Amino acid sequence: MGTTRDEQAEQRRTALMDAALAVFAAKGVDGASIKNIAAEAGVTPGLVYHYFESKTHLVTTVLRERGFGPRLRELLAEAADKPATEVLSLVVGGFQQVLADNAQLVELFFGASRSNDEIHAAMGDFVRDGRAMLADYLRSRAEAGELRPHDAEVAATALFATVAMGVRTATPIDAGELVRIVLLGTLVREGDFHD
Amino acid sequence: MGTTRDEQAEQRRTALMDAALAVFAAKGVDGASIKNIAAEAGVTPGLVYHYFESKTHLVTTVLRERGFGPRLRELLAEAADKPATEVLSLVVGGFQQVLADNAQLVELFFGASRSNDEIHAAMGDFVRDGRAMLADYLRSRAEAGELRPHDAEVAATALFATVAMGVRTATPIDAGELVRIVLLGTLVREGDFHD
Amino acid sequence: MGTTRDEQAEQRRTALMDAALAVFAAKGVDGASIKNIAAEAGVTPGLVYHYFESKTHLVTTVLRERGFGPRLRELLAEAADKPATEVLSLVVGGFQQVLADNAQLVELFFGASRSNDEIHAAMGDFVRDGRAMLADYLRSRAEAGELRPHDAEVAATALFATVAMGVRTATPIDAGELVRIVLLGTLVREGDFHD
Amino acid sequence: MGTTRDEQAEQRRTALMDAALAVFAAKGVDGASIKNIAAEAGVTPGLVYHYFESKTHLVTTVLRERGFGPRLRELLAEAADKPATEVLSLVVGGFQQVLADNAQLVELFFGASRSNDEIHAAMGDFVRDGRAMLADYLRSRAEAGELRPHDAEVAATALFATVAMGVRTATPIDAGELVRIVLLGTLVREGDFHD
DNA sequence: TATGAATGAGGATTCATTCAT
DNA sequence: GATGAATGAATCCTCATTCAT
Q1: Are C113 and C48 part of one and the same domain?
Q2: Does C38 lie in the same domain as C123?
Q3: Which residues of C49-65 are buried (b: 16+ CB within 10 A; e: fewer)?
Q4: With contact defined as beta carbons under 8 Å apart, do B32 and B24 qualify?
Q5: C-alpha–C-alpha distance, residues B31 and B37, integer Å
Q6: Contact: B193, A184; criterion CB under 8 Å
Q7: Are residues D155 and D95 in the same domain?
Q8: Separation of CA D118 and C1' E7 in angstroms?
Q9: CA–C1' distance C123–F19 (Å)?
Q10: Are residues B20 and B98 in the same domain?
Q11: Residues C76 and C134 reside in one and the same domain
Q12: Chains C and D in direct contact, meaning 3 or more beta-carbon pairs closer than 8 angstroms
């Protein structure tokens, strides 16, 4: 009934990623040292290299396994047959919740190393992936006639970036209000609009 | 008509800030070393400390004097008596232009050190200032009855964050489309909306 | 007819020494890590310590059991009753062949760790032994009146070192020419010689 | 009358190379750490990098500036118009003297890093250069009719390698005897020779 | 036998900063 | 003003070795 060797190893790996996430959040990726992370996890620096071949690998793994990608996928899957107005509220609210639960992730992204090209590139991919998922959903609603034709990448970026920036600057965004703006706009008389 | 001592000093200071901005953009704040910056400016590391008392001071000074705050202020001032629909297009387009012209600034912000608390705090202030300026404008248009009542901070964040994120992820945002979304929304039938 | 426990163990030991020799040749003694050697042998680092009590022991064992001592002994034994001129050609040629076949040995010697005194000492013994064997042969030929009296250690060193250095610097030595020089000299008129 | 800044810097550089040579000799190139070398010179590790951009550069610089190349060049230049028998005695004796004075050099070469390809290559070049200088001299004597036609590279290698190996194995070679063997050979009756 | 998790010391290197010149 | 030598601490990472499983 005791944990097996493999289970213990898996726990260690998990613990190291937890520790990494915490330290990245507190000090940023560049500011976090392997020593910091090891200490946070209560192990020796050398052990980190037993589980992750380099700091770069550690960062990209944390990003892949702990990023909001998996969570966002769930949210969109679950919300497949509801009206867009509800779905977007769920997505934005859920997204904000994920970020709130893992303030570290936002810091991870915004504080992402520019001093390490590999990490920087991974960071970009990661954001683009998330945005593409949301944009795909928006496009499908436009095709379904529920949303007017629009640049879904722009709308997705707006939803995503606004929430993230709100967290980053410690100015929480009201998710409902954000969805309202993106769905209904802010203009009183539509006729006033001209490019 | 030779330059005076003070002018020379001012030129050096300017040159050092130019160099710092360039290196920050290329390598991020944490990745930039004083040696790098000095080399970029064609001087020795020691001299940097004649003009800026520490790396932290150098960063915060660059941020204050070279941030997009001043530019944003200009843009909003110029656009003071035009309809919101036009003003926002100008502001967003102009903002995007500023960022495009100074990709360094975006990098400076996104790549801002989390490993140095003082720098991190300065970064936050700087973003909040910009957003507040835009929100003030939006609020004034709502009071004037041109825009419907809405959370201006959220809308300002959306405009600001979306453009910035687009630059950051090398996925340029269509400014017109962004303004259209924020002003007109994306929903086909307003009646479909419910919180 | 299956292999016994002892045979298996012996095979493992042999495999580990093969792996060690290969890695030493490729990276030098200092550059080779236990992990490298274990990987080369397809086992885990821990197992190496089952067969060899330390890296030092592994190196000295490889040196003793795989050094060219054994091969040199064979060459000299086979060549026991032929004229010196033929014997030396055989010995030098054979020696060069041994080195060519086991470039690893040359690297092992030349790349021998100075950072570990024990290994360094073992290395010295090993070379001195080889040289002594060749010198013994030369002395016996001088006593037999075939060679003029000379310092056999010097001649042996010359033969040995020249071939080895040639291999080390990737400049193969013509064995026949080396023997010719050591047996006949290079001077046109012997009378020209004076100390 | 005080030393200038440049002079002091030059002294430091010299002192660092002295220290490096000493530590390389004592522990081998791989065994020598920058910390060791800095301590030997009485400075901080960081300073080593102010003068030499990497450990590799330090090693190759020491080799180039302190190797026996410069010394060998002098010996051959001085010896230009003397009979080969005398010249070679001078060269071999002088060479042995250089090695005796800088036992470190021999260790440097023999202990040369195999774990660093760049250093290993530099080491090879360095030996080949020295050998080429001696071979050129031998060829010129053969053309002058003083030495019989022979493979000068082989003879040069023999002279060079034998002395070096003697030092390396702490078995000093009698320089006179070595020259005698290479000039006169060891065979009693030349007619006995056959390939 | 064999594994691979874990350690702790040490490796090369970089860096912000100071200060004599 | 300007230089660049010097520091010392911190960085990522590697390694020989041990030991519970």
Answers
A1: no
A2: no
A3: eebbeebbebbbbbbee
A4: yes
A5: 11
A6: yes
A7: yes
A8: 32
A9: 32
A10: no
A11: yes
A12: yes
Tokens at residue A46, please?
Answer: 């050398």
Cβ separation of D85 and C169 shorter than 8 Å?
no
Residue pair A164/B140 in contact by the 8 Å Cβ criterion = no
In angstroms, rounded to a whole number, what is the distance separating the alpha carbons of residues C186 and D192? Answer: 16
Nucleotides of E under 7 A from a protein CB: 1-21
Other C-beta atoms lying within 10 Å of the C-beta of residue D143 = 10
- Check which CATH number belongs to the domain holding A134 and give it: 1.10.357.10
Give the whole-angstrom CA distance, residue B45 versus residue B6: 21
Contacts 24+ apart (CB under 8 A), A121-125: A122/A59, A122/A60, A122/A63, A123/A63, A124/B168, A124/B169, A124/B170
Residue C98, both tokens: 């041994």
Q: Give the pair of three-digit tokens for residue C37.
A: 């050697």
Give the per-residue pLDDT at D1.
Answer: 44
D22: which 2 tokens?
Answer: 């000493």
Burial class (CB in 10 A: 0-12, 13-18, 19+), C126: buried
B140 and B173 in a single domain? The answer is yes
Domain end, chosen from B65, B86, B108, is at: B65
Q: Please name the chains neighbouring C, where neighbouring means 3+ C-beta pairs under 8 angstroms.
A: D
Both A123 and A176 in a single domain? yes
Of A114, A162, A170, the CB nearest to B161: A162
Question: Is the CB of C131 less than 8 angstroms away from the CB of D171?
Answer: yes
Q: How confident is the model at residue B1 (pLDDT cuts 50, 70, 90)?
A: very low
Same domain, C105 and C178: yes
pLDDT in tens, B99-128: 776 666 676 666 555 667 777 777 777 778
In this complex, is the C-beta atom of D70 within 8 Å of any C-beta atom belonging to chain C?
A: no
Total length of chain C:
195
User: Which of B46, B65, B84 marks a domain boundary?
Assistant: B65
Q: Which two tokens stand for residue B75?
A: 């843009």
Q: Is A189 within a domain?
A: no
Do residues D193 and C86 make contact, with C-beta atoms less than 8 angstroms apart? Answer: no
Reported as a single tens digit per residue, the pLDDT across C48-106 is: 999 999 999 998 898 888 777 777 788 888 877 788 888 898 888 888 887 776 666 67
Q: How many CA atoms lie within 13 A of A45 on its CB side?
A: 7
Asked whether residue B195 is domain-assigned, the answer is no
Distance CA D145 to C1' F10 in A? 66
Helix, strand, coil % over all residues of chain A, rounded to 5: 75, 0, 25
This prediction has a pTM of: 0.80
